[in-house]
Amino acid sequence: MNVNVQEMTPVASLLGGVLIGLASAAVLRFQGRVAGVSGILGGLLGFARGDLAWRGGFLAGLVAAGVLAAWAWPASVDLGGGVGTWAVVLGGLLVGFGTRLANGCTSGHGVCGISRLSPRSLAATGVFMAAGVASVFVVRHLIGGGL
Amino acid sequence: MQFLGSMLIGALFGGGLLLGGMARPAKVLGFLDVFGHWDPSLAFVMLGAIGVYAPLYRFITARTLPVYAQRFMVVAGRQVDRRLLLGSLLFGVGWGLSGFCPGPGTVAFGSGQLTGSVFFASMVAGMLLFQLFDRVATPAASSGGSEADGSGERTTPAAALPKA
Asked: pLDDT (tens digit, 9 = 90+) per residue, B30-86?
């Protein structure tokens, strides 16, 4: 295994994780719900009754964080990296469809579900991690990354 | 008030994604590139998030009630089924292709860059396609009684809860 030591950001990443954990706990404390971004957005698209305000607010907060970061700390939202537009479009379609079919994504299953040792979330996280690794392997190392 | 409070929480969540490096698709792909020049940083994001959320989850659900709901809507099913596995497989492939998952994709949309908008629009289209598919595949679900909580667990719809 060949670890990229120069690019590693263990302290910033750990602190970022702590903020995510605190925000997720606040969602639980106030709304009694799992802080799963795909579920929050999907519920909004499906017009879940009675809780449009907190769902809309949470997503507006994520968008606001992006607006602020683009102004104050652009390196944290550097979207460059050589992925072609078609990969972004196809990736987005798969992420949207897949997370709704599986009822959760990196936040709902990967953080909240694993925290309470949910068998479904453990299985989901194992599968999407493995599929992510496999798709990067195919694109970068089998077909050479020329996409 | 619920909108504004929730917006603050969302901004905190987004700040965590940004600080952690999740809103940089190149870094995400570096994390998934286990067989290349691997950057394990994003494992620390999960470690930090779970390290904080797991004890708080126990404390909050054992000692308190939600401020704006009658009960916690978190746990129900435990069954690992085909939908869960196939959905996670599709999600993982999309994550590996684009370098975005839903939270960072939403933050990227806010950053005003074209790539962020293209991803976000595609993800929303994928979710709407799922709703169409779900209506065809499971006609009973179209009555609106199968709301999920985003965690992989089916929950009691809010309308079915006893009124306090």
From this structure: 999 999 999 999 999 999 999 999 999 999 999 999 999 999 988 767 799 999 999
Interface test with B, best of A49, A88, A143 (most B CBs within 10 A): A88
pLDDT at residue number B99: 97
CA distance B34 to chain A (A): 7
> For B108-158, how does the pLDDT look when each residue is reduced to its tens digit (9 = 90+)?
999 999 999 999 999 999 999 999 999 888 765 443 333 344 444 444 443
CB distance A39–B148 less than 8 Å? yes
Give B71 to chain A, closest Cα distance, Å. Answer: 6
Whole-complex ipTM: 0.96
**Of B105, B21, B83, B119, which Cα lies nearest the Cα of A91?**
B119
Look up the pTM and report it.
Answer: 0.91
Contact B20 A46 (CB under 8 A): no
Q: How far is CA A58 from CA A65, A132, B162, in A?
A: 11, 26, 26
pLDDT category of residue B159 using cuts at 50, 70 and 90: very low
Q: Which of A1, A13, A61 sits opposite B44 (nearest CB)?
A: A13
Q: Where are the domains of chain B?
A: 2-160
Nearest by Cα to A26 from B22, B53, B17: B53
Residue B57, token pair as written in the block: 């989850």
DSSP class per residue in A24-74: HHHHHHHHSS---HHHHHHHHHTT-TT-HHHHHHHHHHHHHHHHHHHHH-G
A:26-85 residues touching chain B, CB 8 A cutoff: 26-43, 45-46, 48-51, 53-70, 73, 76-83, 85
Measure the CA–CA gap between A66 and A27, rounded to whole angstroms: 20
